[in-house]
Amino acid sequence: MNNSPLADPMMTPYLLLDKERFQRNIDRLTTRIQALGCQLRPHLKTLRSLEAGAYLLEHRRSPATVSTLAEAEAFASAGYENLLYAVGISPNKLGRIAALRRRGIQLHLLLDSAEQARAIVGYAQQHSVAFSVFIEIDCDGHRGGIRADAPQLTGIAEYLHHNGVEVSGVMTHAGESYHAGSWDEIAAAAEQECAAATAAAARLRERGIPCPVVSVGSTPTAHAVSNLAGVTEVRAGVFSTFDLFMSNVGVCRTDDIALSVVTSVIGHNHEKGWVFVDAGWMALSRDRGTATQRKDYGYGLVCNSEGISLDLTIASASQEHGIIEIPPDSGWNITDFPLGTTLRILPNHACATAAMHRHYRVIGGRNGSTEVWERITGW
């Protein structure tokens, strides 16, 4: 007996990827960054799929970004050689990284503290392994990193350099751009991000540390940046699928969003004006990122089976139930959604929603064929 959830093509909920929109989104940013004289190091964390990587990466030596070692190992086994593990390094992961390095994989680590630097040097010397690191630069106070003008920046870099660890580059992430209120604010964040990264690299080079890579990136700033002088690569992740959060930021339209969760109507509450669907937070995720934005989409935007918005949202969700509340002035009635009706739900946060699914159904292939892509799971 085949118990796979994909055995029955009508079984809902499932995650659907529109390949045409996916490819269009990739082409849009790739063309833009290349026109600015730079290269893209796409973040693979949204879909975490080897099949998706084949569209995002031109060849096996193309630079890529991962957020888990499971991704790094899977892509390395598939032949990809240039990977940045863009999460601050923990000493307990150095053994797995060393194993990949010994296989000839150019896997770069990320750090922003002297403590991490000491752990890397200690492991490298004890186990005779060569590591490559990026130093994270704080360009906006969003999360981690070292300020470009901080004294410890050169101290950490010199310690690594003089103890045999390659300082391959500096990296920034303009995370505050996600909260920008206008396109001008995103453009200003992009300028600030580039300035911080290039300033940090200049300080290291003045100390005799080559620092060949200057890496910047977030999906909003990647689309707004106008000058990449001194920058060697741009990172972005959710640009390939987009989501409602990015639509609210102004980086895309809702009809650019390539991911949706396909769901079925499973019941009604006529008294309350509710339509129940079989996509709860286990299918949509608990991410409510749009709640603080200009438009709150609840747990997702409801579309018809063709992906056309109905201007309704999943107002609330439990584990396996989503509830569409039909406003009296919406023009819709409960009777418009009979039992078994198929709908698509656009996600607030594509990365979080994709993480709820082990497989993706992919439409837009030749002759209307449907593919199934696997997700890399674990850490």
3D structure, described in words:
The chain is of the alpha/beta class. It is built from eleven helices and 18 strands. Strand 11 and strand 12 (274-277) form a beta hairpin. Helix 5 runs parallel beside helix 6. The chain is elongated. The chain starts with 13 loop residues before the first strand and ends in a 5-residue tail after the last strand.
Oligomeric form: single chain
Evaluate the radius of gyration: 22 Å
Biggest beta sheet attributes = 9 strands, parallel
Find the count of extended strands (DSSP E, 2+ residues).
18
Task: Give the structural class.
Answer: alpha/beta
Roughly what fraction of the amino acids lie in strands? 15-25%
**pLDDT below 50 for ≥5 consecutive residues: which ranges?**
1-5
The average pLDDT value, as a whole number, equals: 95
Straight-line distance between termini? 30 Å
Element order: H for helix, E for strand: EHEHEHEHEHEEHEHEHEHEEHEEEEHEE
Tell me the number of helical segments per DSSP (H or I, 4 or more residues long). Answer: 11
Overall, the morphology is: elongated
Q: Fraction of residues in helices?
A: 25-40%
